[in-house]
Design brief:
The chain has 846 residues and is of the alpha/beta class. The chain is 31% helix and 21% strand.
Length: 846
């Protein structure tokens, strides 16, 4: 009965339940429609009120509130944690915020006519006098007006000013410091540094409103500059698969995160810096197949209204054209700078001035260098440069200035490097390479793009080492916090370098002026440059202020300045490297040349990688080793040089491999060893033959290593060296590993070897034409610390790991075990000469 009654009740109430359910659904649908409509309205704001959306705040907005604009996607707490990790206090970070603060409109800007007009804005000279004395100051006031000729009541315009003379004296100019008074007016201070005539020139680079457009796009669409990743790998039937995808910074929310799919991307995290790069996942190749990087394209996201705000950029404004008369001082006023250049000096404004196209520094005592004094300054120096193309200009000019500095052909993309030039007689080696991603470049090998902090960490340093870097222009589209973190990693690396090698010279090149668009505006560069200077204000480094040098010169601004400006920049660079007057000393260097006469051997089967070593691998006859593996031959000085011509040979291992380096240097008289001022036992060592474009390198492998006291930074793991190698038909990589692992468990050595194996496989995948050669173990030791039995077991592991990899193996185990000479872990020259012949036969198979 109860069940029947319940069913009857449900049947009576069913129509009501249906109506209730239908009503709830209708309410929910209406809510979703309204919500969607509101969202679409927010996303489709009228472009006419764009500046109202992003800048309707009072001009008294505090820099602390502006933090939301300069921070990245990380929370404030995580950012604070990051900065404290790098020794940056909250007070120091707050000072950065204060410095980066840039005023903006205090009202809604609905029309371009409300923005600052270069045609209506003016400047006046305060308290203009009939004449001035050298060393006095001149003050100018700028009044900003809009296109309706109304005075502006708020700041934020980006002005630049200079004092110049084109006649008497000729080619003179100096930078003026502009201060925003936050009420539509700006003050400018000029130093009067020369005797003669001068005029004032002021340019409006961007209006306050245009700056807001730049800020908005930096915060919302860094993908307006795209990057490409090129993936290559083996395909079916001997083909080679290739794919090209989009890439960008991983931490940037405006990048590939827009792809709303699952496992969208390949991620590349640098194990040392923590820097992360991301590429779309290729359809048919693994993430490890990424070989090349390049710039993609510029994508203009500007609305028509925004473009109008940016259009009147870099325009001169009207003002008093009075000729300023500057007379000699009748008192004690002087502009001579006698202070010796030293690291840690803070750059003044102005930092210097041009007179007859020669820059006089007001920071410290600099001087002009000619070919002879440049050579003498760089003598016995190892100069490492890493940065962008504006720093590459320094490398290129130094190569032109010093005729004895010969550039090697490393068979790489010149735009990104690495580049090297050497002067063997004066023991100078000059290096340049592009910094790591993000980098707007042509298609270039990923392995050649190194992070600056990693390069510094790998540097031993010392009184003969100069490290020069710049970074900035390739970061203009990314949030400031991202750039700040990159700079702080570099700062930490520099501090570590100066702690372990205080005598190292570290030089920073600041930003050039030149760009005015939404992709690379000088306003972006100025903010990045501010961060760079802030980060290194308390670090003992030199800073070359090229910002002022490029901004105030009479030549039209160019991100790649002309020879006149570059020559002055190089003079400052050399003045920092050699702050004392150089005394030219003529000295005669002598070198002992060893000539070895060799005899050719019979030719049999051609050598190629992947051959398995037989037993016996060969035999001695009249002290000449005949290989039973493949056709080897004897090499003399001439044929050795011909074989190594246009080759880049990298060796890493222990002292038995160093013997090969040393013998090759003796065999080839034109192969000159550079003095890198390092421990010879562990290296790195380098020898070059400029005429034949040969560079030969050796360094010891990483720990464990039984060596004399040596710099930790010079001990590199073999797999890391391989990962940093571009490879190709001109590259030879030779390695050896074993004896220093004799006291450790086999599993430890096996894991080390397998990491090397993976690195070799990756190298041969991205550059199949690379020659990879393995030297096996020597016989010699019989004790509990390094017994041949230990060496034999380690050698077995090494051969096992590479049995299926396309590499050459030189079996020196048999060559040292069967010779009539007494066994020695460092065999005599008769054995070494035969080992070298096999090496060369593998590099240059008959």
């Amino acid at each position: 009965m109860k069940l029947t009654a319940r069913k009857q009740y449900i049947n009576r109430e069913r129509p009501c339940l249906k109506m209730m359910f239908t009503g709830i659904c209708l309410v929910l649908i209406c809510f979703l429609i309204v919500w969607s409509y509101i969202g679409s309205k927010e996303n489709k704001q009228d472009p006419n009120i764009f500046l109202s959306m992003y800048n309707s705040r009072d001009i008294s907005t505090s820099p602390a509130e502006v933090l939301l604009e300069i921070s990245s996607e990380d929370s404030e707490s995580s950012s604070s944690s990051f900065y404290s990790e790098f020794g940056i206090s909250s007070e120091s970070y707050s000072s950065l915020q204060q410095t980066l603060y840039w005023a903006g409109p205090d009202r809604s800007i609905t029309n371009v006519s409300m923005s600052t007009s270069p045609a209506h804005s003016t400047f006046i000279i305060q308290n203009l006098k009939d004449s001035y004395q050298i060393g006095e100051e001149l003050f100018v006031t700028i009044h900003a007006r809009d296109f309706n000729n109304k005075s502006k009541r708020y700041g934020g315009d980006f002005f630049q000013a200079k004092l110049f003379s084109s006649k008497s004296p000729k080619k003179a100019s100096v930078f003026g410091k502009v201060v925003d008074l936050l009420d539509g007016s700006y003050s400018v201070r000029f130093l009067l540094p020369w005797v003669g005539l001068a005029q004032v020139a002021v340019r409006l680079i961007h209006s306050s409103e245009a700056v807001q457009v730049l800020k908005h796009h930096r915060a919302t669409d860094s993908d307006r500059v795209s990057f490409l990743g090129y993936f290559e790998g083996p395909g079916p039937n001997g083909t080679r698969l290739k794919e090209t995808v989009l890439c960008t910074v991983k931490s940037d929310k405006n990048g590939l995160e827009k792809i709303k799919i699952g496992d969208c991307c390949c991620e590349y995290k640098d194990s040392r810096t923590g820097e992360e790069w991301r590429c779309q996942r290729p359809k048919s190749l693994p993430c490890s197949a990424r070989v090349y990087h390049s710039f993609g394209e510029y994508i203009n996201h500007l609305t028509a209204k925004e473009a109008m705000f940016l259009n009147p950029s870099n325009k001169g404004i009207n003002g008093l054209k009075n000729i300023i008369k500057i007379l000699p001082s009748n008192g004690s006023t002087t502009i001579d700078v006698t202070q010796k250049c030293r690291p840690g000096l803070h750059t003044p404004v102005p930092a210097g001035f041009y007179l007859n196209d020669v820059w006089t520094s007001l920071l410290c005592s600099t001087r002009r260098f000619n070919t002879q004094t440049t050579t003498q300054c760089l003598k016995d120096k190892h100069i490492f440069m890493i940065g962008d193309s504006t720093l590459r200009q320094w490398f290129e000019l130094l190569v032109k200035v010093v005729p004895t500095l010969k550039q090697m052909n490393l068979h790489v993309i010149h735009q990104t490097g690495p580049l090297i030039a050497v002067d063997v007689e004066n023991n100078i080696d000059l290096h340049w390479r592009a910094h790591g991603v993000p980098l707007r470049s042509r298609k270039t090998e990923v392995t050649n793009l190194h992070y600056i902090s990693n390069e510094i960490d790998d540097l031993t340093g010392g009184p003969h080492t100069v490290f020069v870097f710049n970074v900035g222009i390739h970061f203009t589209t990314f949030p400031l916090d991202y750039f700040t973190k990159r700079v702080l990693r570099i700062r930490k690396a520099v501090l570590d370098l100066l702690q372990r090698a205080p005598a190292t010279t570290v030089i920073i090149k600041t930003a050039n002026t030149g760009f005015k668009d939404v992709f690379s505006s000088d306003w972006y560069s100025l903010q990045l440059d501010t961060i760079l200077r802030w980060a290194f204000q308390d670090v003992g480094v030199y800073i070359i202020d090229v910002w002022q040098m490029t901004a105030c010169h009479y030549n039209k601004e160019n991100i790649h300045p002309g020879g006149v400006i570059l020559k002055n920049e190089i003079d400052i660079l050399l003045s920092f490297i050699c702050p004392l007057i150089i005394r030219l000393i003529n000295s005669a260097n002598t070198r002992c040349t060893v000539t070895i006469t060799l005899h050719p051997a019979d030719v049999t089967q051609k050598c190629h990688p992947g051959l398995h070593t037989p037993v016996p691998a060969g035999f001695y006859l009249n002290d000449v080793w005949t290989s039973l593996l493949c056709s080897t031959r004897r090499f003399n000085t001439q044929t050795t040089t011909q074989c190594l011509k246009d080759k880049h040979i990298f060796m890493i291992g222990d002292s038995t491999l160093r013997q090969w380096f040393e013998l090759l240097v003796k065999v080839v008289p034109t192969l000159k060893q550079m003095n890198l001022h390092v421990i010879h036992q562990t290296g790195p060592l380098i020898a070059v033959d400029v005429e034949n474009n040969i560079d030969l390198h050796w360094r010891s492998h990483g720990v464990p290593l039984r060596s004399h006291k040596t710099e930790v930074t010079n001990l590199h793991y073999i797999s890391n060296e391989i990962d940093d190698l571009t490879g190709g038909p001109h590259t030879v990589f030779v390695f050896h590993l074993g004896m220093h692992f004799a006291t450790f468990p086999l599993d430890y050595f096996t894991k080390r070897v397998l990491r090397i194996r993976k690195a070799v496989l990756d190298l041969l995948q991205r550059a199949p034409a690379t020659t990879v050669i393995i030297k096996t173990a020597n016989t010699g030791f019989k004790d509990v610390f390094g017994s041949d039995w230990y060496a034999l077991q380690l050698d077995t592991i090494l051969r096992w790991a590479f049995q299926d990899v396309g590499v050459y193996i030189i079996d020196v185990w048999q060559m040292t075990a069967c010779h009539y000479n007494k066994e020695n872990i460092h065999p005599r020259k008769v054995i070494l000469k035969n080992e070298i012949d096999i090496l060369l036969s593998f590099i240059c198979p008959a």
